[in-house]
Amino acid sequence: MRHFKMKHIIITILFLNITPILPEEIIRLRAKNNIAYIYEEPNLKSKKISKIKENLEFSQESLKIKVEQTPIDFGYWIQLRKPNGWIFTKEIIFDIENDDYCNDSLKIPSKLFLEGFEVIILKDGLFLISSNELGSSFNQQVGVWKSDKGNFEGIIYFEDSTITDCLNICYENEDTSNCKKSCEKEAKKEFGILSITAKIDFLLKIKQREKILFFKTIKDIPKRLKSFFQNIHIEENRIYKTECIAN
To answer: What is this structure's pTM?
Structure first.
């Protein structure tokens, strides 16, 4: 009887020390403009292996994100393990379910909502920001981050066509030729340019449950386009906080 009790105690201790297996975070990808491609090599001119038409789901371990190099045309290459191949960040939209952003710490991957902006932080330094309030002209922008004492600092490579929304209406109405000329004319009249690019330095600070984002500098845009960024609520040193209701 004594021998049986000892076995029971040992088994109980073993069960108490088992770490619960948490469900793996799923990262979803979809094409930014109807169709995206998986390439054989990290080059837009390389062989196209397959198309991405619908949502694809990956675990963190199935994606190999490379952000160490200078961005190519405002984008980065990501290697897939299954299916084997490469995708370009400019062609796809990322999404994750992990929006538990009211915790005292920030887990990666994570999704935050900061006064109109949606921020997704992925491993290996990939930072994504978008705004559902601003329509298709503000597609998911790509950035990189590094962490220091819980704060995330990095660069967003912003690229936006000022005529995207207008052209989408043209495609819906199947009147692309005349409509495109009209869109270009209106865009040039309003902004003086058809495409806006910028390099934005950001800082995401973690203060217990509160996460604070602000843009330190906005570079590489003509001064006359400052109103464009103000219209989409991107301003230097303006503070954006997490939309979090504490329990």
So the answer is: 0.78
